[in-house]
Design a protein that fits this description.
Largest sheet: none
Helix content: over 70%
Number of strands: 0
C-alpha cells in the first residue's frame, strides 16, 4: 500500500487529484500483475504434479505387466 492509499480513500468526499488517480491505477496494475504471476506459477506447479503422477502410474503399470 502506497502513501496515496493512506491519504485517499475512494469513499472520500473529496475528488482525487490526477496524480492520486495515476498512483492508484499503478498500484492496481502492479497488484494485478503479481496476482497473474502467482496464478501462472500455481498452474505450472499443478501441471507438473499431474505429469509426475501420470509418469509414476505408467511406470507402475509397466512393472505390473512385465512381472
Amino acid at each position: 500500500m502506497t502513501e496515496v492509499h493512506k491519504k485517499y480513500r475512494l469513499t472520500s468526499m473529496e475528488e482525487p487529484t490526477d496524480e492520486m488517480l495515476q498512483a492508484l491505477m499503478e498500484d492496481v496494475a502492479m497488484a494485478a500483475r503479481e496476482s497473474s504471476a502467482k496464478a501462472k506459477a500455481e498452474k505450472q506447479r499443478r501441471f507438473s504434479e499431474v505429469v509426475r503422477i501420470i509418469k509414476a502410474r505408467r511406470s507402475q503399470r509397466k512393472k505390473i505387466l512385465n512381472d
